[in-house]
Design brief:
Helix content: 10-25%
Number of strands: 39
Strand order of the largest sheet: 32-33-35-34-36-37-38-39
Number of helices: 11
Structural class: alpha+beta
CATH topology of the largest domain: Rossmann fold
Distance between the termini: 31 Å
Radius of gyration: 25 Å
Largest sheet: 8 strands, mixed
Number of domains: 3
CATH class of the largest domain: Alpha Beta
Shape: globular
Length: 694
């Protein structure tokens, strides 16, 4: 039976933009304070409650997810002054807590977000211990707004020494020795910036713990691009400061270096170059450079921070050269058993991570860590003062984030250091890697996850993708994927252009005027799953969030026949006006800007909101939005939901589900369960999945 949708006024609003006639009939839904928007939203809430509440598998998915979501998670430790700092979430905890392990092995909790806010709406955004390990800077935000507030505490006593310092969203922290001063990033006060630009205008500041932050010393950023994000790093001896800047999410950065033992002036290391370089001075006194400058799959090199003659790329000396097939993603400096400096390096090959050991003098690879199972390395760490031990964060499709330990005495081996607990039974899964062929002949890698022992017949399948911002989709524990697989379905993850799976060239092949490649890759992945017998079009669903919401939004408007169900979460959908809201202005290097006539043409070519066609049989669509989302405004989902509800000729429902007091990022575990259960139950109804799970 066809759903009766809430009434939505359709404006006769057509604008001439650079010669393009652009209709925007639901412009009024951009304003949450418009009485029409409030009435329409309330009616959508009622519709969502009715549709989602009647889904037959919702209780079963909720029960399964309660177990799987409450699997624990353990973070990679950061070592400072003999102490080890790390996060851990145990089954039953809403948020991970930040702990410290003392040299004698005792463990204490330093920051527990639920203790700070029993309602569960406060999240720990970032943290950084001082070089001596006696002080900790950490950042909290509330209600999903990601507006981080910076605090400092005494590690031994737990006493708060500083904070809150506001306007610290996305702020790195770099300590000076002694723990009395730090460098950080803070936005200018709202009354010092043009209206509408309050989320921009960051600066690098030098701060003394306990002092009024309004008196902090300005270090860098004045007169530069207002959308810049900044990075700051110091050397352990306090001599060197490295500052980096990137305009929004552009895949390029400028880098400056200052000798704080001299005049302290920042000197240009890299500027105006179409490349990314992470730079830091390590304990050996060398300037370490992890860069894609001329090497799109990245390399690790060294230079002399005190000698600008060595700063030119042709003078860099490679330690880990660019790989022919792997993308270098992380490194840790360790000591060999003979005292030599070595590098533990992470490379990704077809979205699966590998570990290897390299000589710190650049003489080549020493060993492959063959004990690493197929999966993902979330990070590698070692004490900055040196040592023969390193810690490796690890996860795969059935293993919650855990920590492994590497020892120089057994360089090819790994030992379990701390395993995340699991609340319930994790299904025994089979992972198959396969490749689809995109429209232009490009191979597209997929992971296909199913329950071991299931019959080799077409089954309801969820295809998940992202395809943007240099983000790689590698194997990772997902309660949602495991719940679907446990119910007899198939879960597939596509490694699309726009990500980092094959380096910066792969990223750029899916951005700006080449964004259509991403949608072609995703459609090819869906067709491949059907052709290989995993599923059928009537049993296929697609799912994505944020930039992945744009992905599935474009897919459902370009290929409404591809899938039977769609989950589109926190999506970006009106590509003509996306820069006007949230952080949209920082993404125009990824997508293009509507202010440019040529680039507007790119955007209109795939903008989901502008691609809706009346009388089309659209699949079942569930939009999920978060009212405190300060990155992607919920208006995108409101506008496309209204357009699809008016246009579709099918009986498949188009539903808008919204939440309050949560945002784009981290959330309490219990909120995750409710959202995931609704999404899976909706897709189960769309694809014919009927098993309650085992």
């Amino acid at each position: 039976m066809r759903v009766r949708y809430p009434d939505a006024e359709r404006l006769d609003l057509v604008e001439d933009l650079h010669g393009h006639r652009v209709a925007d009939p639901y412009r009024w839904l951009e304003d949450p304070d418009d009485p029409r928007t409030a009435t329409w939203t309330a009616a959508q809430d009622a519709l969502a409650a009715d549709v989602l509440g009647a889904l037959p598998l919702r209780p079963a998915f909720t029960a399964r997810l309660e177990q799987l979501v409450h699997a624990g998670a353990v973070g990679v430790p950061v070592h400072r002054g003999g102490r080890a700092f790390s996060t851990r979430r145990d089954p039953g905890q809403e948020h991970a807590v930040l702990r410290v392990r003392e040299p004698d092995g005792t463990v204490r909790v330093l920051v527990d977000p639920v203790a700070v806010d029993p309602s569960g709406t406060t999240t720990l955004d970032a943290w950084s211990p001082s070089w001596e390990g006696d002080r900790l800077a950490y950042q909290l935000s509330t209600g999903g707004d990601e507006e981080s507030r910076l605090y400092v505490l005494d590690v031994a006593t737990g006493e708060r020494l500083d904070g809150p310092v506001d306007r610290c969203r996305y702020s790195p922290v770099a300590w000076l020795p002694g723990g009395e001063e730090l460098f950080y990033v803070r936005r200018l006060a709202p009354d010092r910036v043009p209206a509408g630009e309050e989320q921009f205008h960051r600066r690098v500041w030098r701060h003394r713990v306990g002092a009024d932050p309004d008196g902090d010393a300005l270090v860098h950023g004045e007169g530069l691009d207002p959308t810049n994000y900044y990075g700051v790093r110091t050397s352990a001896d306090g001599r060197w400061l490295v500052v980096s800047a990137s305009a929004g999410t552009a895949p390029r950065d400028d880098v400056w270096l200052a000798d704080l033992s001299g005049d302290g002036a920042l000197r240009e290391f890299q500027a105006g170059v179409d490349a990314q370089t992470a730079a830091w001075v390590a304990r050996d006194g060398r300037l370490w450079l992890m860069s894609d400058r001329g090497t799109p799959r990245w390399r690790l090199a060294v230079a002399d921070p005190a000698d600008p003659a060595t700063w030119a790329p042709e003078a860099w000396r490679d330690v880990v050269p660019e790989s022919d097939d792997g993308v270098l993603s992380d490194v840790a400096l360790v000591d060999g058993t003979d005292g030599s400096l070595q590098v533990l390096a992470v490379h990704s090959v077809d979205a699966t991570d590998r570990l290897s050991v390299w000589a710190g003098d650049g003489s080549g690879r020493l060993a492959e860590v063959t004990a690493l199972p197929p999966g993902s390395v979330s990070g590698v760490s070692a004490p900055p003062e040196g040592g023969t031990t390193a810690w490796v964060g690890y996860t795969d499709f059935a293993t919650p984030p855990s920590v492994l330990r590497w020892e120089a005495a057994r360089p090819t081996a790994l030992a379990e250091d701390e395993r995340a607990p699991v609340a319930g039974e994790v299904p025994d899964v089979t992972v198959v890697e396969t490749h689809a062929t995109s429209r232009d002949g490009t191979p597209v890698h997929l992971f296909v996850v199913s329950r071991a022992g299931e019959p080799d017949t077409p089954r309801p399948t969820v295809l998940y993708g992202y395809g943007g911002f240099d983000v790689s989709l590698t194997p990772a524990y997902s309660a949602q994927a495991l719940a679907w697989v446990a119910a007899g379905g198939v879960w597939a993850v596509a490694n699309l252009r726009g990500g980092s799976e094959h380096g910066e060239e792969w990223h750029r092949a899916g951005m700006r005027e080449r964004k259509q490649n991403v949608f072609d890759d995703f459609a090819a992945a869906g067709e491949h799953l059907v052709a290989q017998g995993w599923t059928t079009h009537r049993q296929l669903a697609v799912m994505g969030g944020s930039n992945g919401g744009l992905l599935v939004g474009a897919t459902l408007t370009q290929r409404p026949d591809l899938a039977a169900g769609v989950v589109c979460s926190a999506p970006l959908l009106d590509m003509v006006r996306y820069e006007r809201f949230g952080l949209g202005r920082t993404w125009n290097d990824e997508y293009g800007t509507a202010d440019d006539p040529v680039e507007l043409g790119w955007l209109l070519g795939y903008s989901p909101y502008h691609g809706v066609r009346d009388g089309t049989a659209y699949p079942a669509v569930l939009f999920t939005t978060f009212e405190s989302d300060t990155r992607v405004d919920p208006l995108h989902a409101r506008k496309l939901a209204a357009a699809l509800q008016a246009a579709t000729s099918a009986e498949a429902p188009v539903v808008l589900r919204r939440e309050t007091s949560v945002g784009h990022g981290a959330r309490a575990v219990s909120r995750t369960v409710g959202l995931a259960a609704d999404q899976l139950a909706f897709l189960a109804a769309a694809t014919g999945l009927t098993a309650p799970g085992r």
